[in-house]
């Protein structure tokens, strides 16, 4: 090594650290396009934004996420504390770590104020995360991530379905379809039940999960070798056959998956109800049951899922973690959520011509965002049969209705100005909420809507009849009050699969 000449400054590194990105103005605009869509979708679905520190105590991840994540942590310490320096020298582990994920932080935050928080809490966050792993396509050491969670919902199938729908809704907002990606889901107890005779410890199940997690990426020989190494020759081969049979349960036969789920209803997982929620969703064609989905983190307890585009890493992944908040010192609390990173998403959008450029990008980023105030609160009018249509109506309002002009275009893009043009029968996506209260008392439900500052209430009395109430004026609206709507019906008529009248009314009155 040669000495620098006296007085000459040392040359700084010319490249960003491996696995990170330098973001120039155009890169930042593309990032803002993604984060704006994430935030708008979250708000329209009734989620509120939170955030936490970018580093946490390293033990938080060891205990809550599993020992496996320790190898992916960027460790952190100031070097100013003798105790910290001594700990690092003695153990090789720093007291803090840059956050590799958000769920442990979220659980810690909820546990700290659980008694004063509403139930359920619907939270989202967007921020930077860090993983010390080998950079490759779709995987960097520093990335941006969107986290969406429902905490404290006492109806797991409703929370699971809502979280899964939001992941699909976001993709649809970007112009992706079910031909571009599938949301593959499973339940962790499916694996435990199928392999119960081979399990003597949590380590046994962890090995099975590890093989399933990469089942489609490795061949038969590698799968067999992994099982034989841990379980022995005879049992390993037998387990391999058992797992192959489990995987063979029709992943691709979409029409049969709901029947398979219903057959497992006696397990107490709420799968029959989840099947009904997903099957009746406007995104039903996105969902696909797959026994190979297990997710690697230790805290998952039930439903798990990944949003997968062919040839790419998962766009998003998540699941149910009902024990984590209690582990943080909070009360027993059901919870479900998912995370989506920007790296794979941007690759998929660019590959499919769905990332705007030039003026289109500037216009898309500059467009008005979602209304923070709920625009419509959907309520069942006392009839239990109206509850499913209520959730479906809310989902449809959040999605919006593409205009006829946009649908007729051969080269339609998600950022086109006419996508939801009202003049061509379009309805822009709305901020729609529903109640999570068990009561069917209409007065209490309307009070819930007012406490959440909703502008209108849509009261579904029958699957095809809805009453629209202005909560600011405390008056009922009739079609004559809304320009452009039919005036010869007593109530707004609502097709269970289309929110056209409610959407048009709210759109017209809040223009």
Q: What layout of secondary structure does this protein have?
A:
Layout: H1 25-44, E1 48-49, E2 55-57, H2 58-64, E3 75-76, H3 82-91, E4 96-98, H4 103-112, E5 121-130, E6 142-151, H5 156-173, E7 181-187, H6 188-194, H7 202-213, H8 220-231, H9 233-248, H10 254-263, H11 271-279, E8 287-289, E9 303-309, E10 314-320, H12 324-327, E11 335-341, H13 342-351, H14 358-366, E12 376-380, H15 387-399, H16 404-407, E13 432-434, H17 442-451, E14 456-462, E15 465-470, E16 475-477, E17 492-493, H18 500-509
Parallel strand pairs: 1-5, 7-8, 12-13, 12-14
Antiparallel strand pairs: 2-4, 3-4, 5-6, 6-11, 7-9, 9-10, 10-11, 14-15, 15-16, 15-17
Helix pairs in contact: 1-5, 1-14, 5-11, 7-8, 8-9, 10-11
Outline the structure in words.
The chain has 511 residues and is α+β, with helices and mostly antiparallel strands. Helices cover 37% and strands 17% of the residues. It is built from 18 helices and 17 strands. It has helices at 25-44, 58-64, 82-91, 103-112, 156-173, 188-194, 202-213, 220-231, 233-248, 254-263, 271-279, 324-327, 342-351, 358-366, 387-399, 404-407, 442-451, 500-509; strands at 48-49, 55-57, 75-76, 96-98, 121-130, 142-151, 181-187, 287-289, 303-309, 314-320, 335-341, 376-380, 432-434, 456-462, 465-470, 475-477, 492-493. Helix 1 (25-44) runs parallel beside helix 14, helix 7 (202-213) packs antiparallel against helix 8 and helix 10 (254-263) packs antiparallel against helix 11. 39% of the residues are buried.
């Amino acid at each position: 090594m040669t000495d620098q000449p006296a007085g000459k400054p040392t040359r700084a590194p010319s490249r960003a650290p491996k696995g990170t990105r330098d973001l120039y103005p155009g890169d930042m605009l593309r990032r803002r396009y993604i984060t704006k869509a994430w935030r708008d979708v979250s708000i329209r679905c009734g989620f509120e934004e939170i955030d936490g520190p970018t580093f946490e105590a390293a033990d938080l991840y060891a205990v809550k996420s599993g020992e496996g994540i320790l190898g992916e942590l960027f460790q952190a310490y100031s070097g100013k504390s003798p105790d910290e320096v001594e700990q690092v020298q003695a153990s090789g582990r720093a007291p803090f770590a840059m956050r590799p994920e958000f769920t442990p932080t979220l659980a810690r935050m909820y546990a700290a104020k659980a008694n004063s928080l509403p139930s359920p809490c619907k939270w989202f966050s967007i921020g930077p995360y860090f993983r010390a792993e080998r950079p490759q396509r779709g995987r960097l050491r520093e990335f941006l991530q969107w986290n969406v969670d429902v905490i404290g919902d006492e109806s797991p199938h409703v929370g699971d379905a809502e979280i899964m729908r939001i992941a699909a809704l976001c993709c649809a907002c970007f112009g992706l379809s079910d031909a571009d990606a599938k949301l593959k889901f499973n339940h962790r107890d499916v694996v435990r039940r199928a392999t119960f005779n081979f399990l003597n410890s949590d380590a046994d199940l962890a090995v099975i999960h590890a093989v399933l997690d990469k089942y489609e990426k490795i061949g038969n020989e590698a799968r067999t070798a992994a099982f034989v190494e841990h379980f022995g020759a005879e049992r390993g081969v037998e387990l391999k056959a058992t797992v192959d049979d489990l995987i063979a349960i029709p992943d691709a036969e979409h029409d049969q998956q709901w029947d398979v789920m219903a057959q497992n209803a006696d397990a107490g997982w709420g799968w029959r109800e989840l099947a009904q929620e997903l099957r009746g969703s406007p995104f039903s064609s996105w969902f696909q049951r797959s026994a190979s989905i297990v997710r690697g983190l230790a805290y998952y307890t039930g439903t798990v899922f990944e949003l997968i585009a062919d040839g790419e890493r998962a766009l998003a992944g998540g699941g149910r973690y009902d024990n984590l908040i209690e582990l943080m010192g909070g009360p027993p609390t059901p919870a479900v959520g998912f995370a989506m990173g920007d790296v794979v998403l941007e690759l998929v959008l660019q590959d499919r011509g769905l990332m705007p450029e030039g003026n289109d990008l500037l216009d898309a980023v500059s467009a008005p965002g979602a209304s923070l105030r709920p625009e419509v609160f959907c309520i069942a009018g006392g009839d239990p049969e109206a509850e499913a249509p209520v959730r479906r109506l809310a989902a449809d309002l959040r999605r919006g209705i593409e205009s006829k002009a946009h649908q007729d275009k051969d080269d339609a893009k998600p950022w086109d100005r006419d996508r939801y043009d009202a003049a061509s029968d379009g309805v822009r996506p709305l901020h729609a909420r529903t109640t999570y209260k068990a009561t069917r008392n209409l007065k209490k439900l309307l009070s819930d809507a007012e406490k959440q500052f909703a502008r209108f209430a849509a009261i579904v009395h029958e699957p095809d009849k809805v009453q629209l109430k202005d909560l600011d004026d405390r008056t009922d609206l009739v079609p004559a009050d809304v320009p452009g709507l039919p005036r010869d019906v007593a109530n707004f008529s609502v097709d269970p699969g289309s929110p056209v009248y409610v959407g048009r009314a709210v759109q017209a009155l809040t223009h």
